[in-house]
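Appendix B, Record 12. Input sequence as logged:
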Amino acid sequence: MAVKIKGTPEEFFVEEIISLPLAEKRERASLRVYRLEKRGWNTLDALREAARASGLSLQDIRYGGKKDRHAHTIQYLTAPARVDLSFSSPNVSISPVGYSSEAMSPHFIRGNRFTLTLRAITPADETHFLGRLLEIRDLGFANYFDDQRFGSVGNDGVFFGERVVRGHYNGALKLYFTTIHPEAPSAAKERKRAMEALWGQWDALLPLCATPLHREIMEILRRNGGDRGGLPALQRIPREELSLHFAAYQSFLWNEVLRRLVLRHARETFSVKGKTGEYVHFRNPGRQGSARLGALSLPTVASRMEATDPECLELIEEVLAERNVRRAQFNLREIRQSYFSSFLRAAVVVPEEFTWARPEEDERYPGKCKSTLSFLLPRGSYATMLVKSLGL
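Logged structural output:
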């Protein structure tokens, strides 16, 4: 993607639009609602700092989703009203906005409002750019899960979730301990490379564990070996971490199904490289293709799935067969802290309130143009995918 985004946090602004019931006075509400505004921080790090300063447990704070650290973001959270979570530090502000009897969760996110600055648009691409904006406004774009969803996946494209589904617990744990996140500090990367080289030598691995939890899990493997200790070790991984790994695998499978649908029904397509595969987007899909794709909602894969179109079910089974996996294997009877749940997600999303500025000279990239886009997307859809669907 030649076009540039996220040059500064202010050039990628996102604000949650929520439906959480709010009250101005506490009355019977046990929770206080806060507005978190941040730049250059990820959500969890900001909340950890605020929790530490207030003496509140991080587990008592509820929020709807994690927001990009390379952006200017506004989101909402709840915490027990008995403690004041207000917090201020460079680039992070948490301030109270009211009270609620319900905890903040993804359920209360109606959508996210974005304002993005796109830079380095070449003059030769300007006509294409404006034409694609009109197409996306009218027809939407393929609603893939973007690369942010796959932070827990290594560059080899092997999925922790798939290894668990297949019962390869030792292999899943190896990924858990050794997968390197691109933004990890160099020392952490070196430590994980060392663990990968020593995998199976439990006594040597134990001193390399970075947290008490990791040492506890490794101790289980040391006592029982990689085969017998695999399941009890997996059972010690916290629910939130396990859920992220499972969601990454489900998102990959979902993307694979959508890619095949776009290739099947759109008469003109182009591809954008992604971390775990190509994102195939449509142009001029034609009336029939546009109607078909726009009407579809695909389920995330689980042993029990939401009802879906027969064609979608056929493609799900096709993708699973290619990976030598069956849906029944997604029912993890022995791992109960998290599970594969199914929900429907639209194949195509049409941005609401979509506006843009006509390209003008880009002072940062001489000879090129910039433009600002503003739009609203439903919960779970990616503004970065809209940018990729421009085909620049």
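The radius of gyration is 23 Å.
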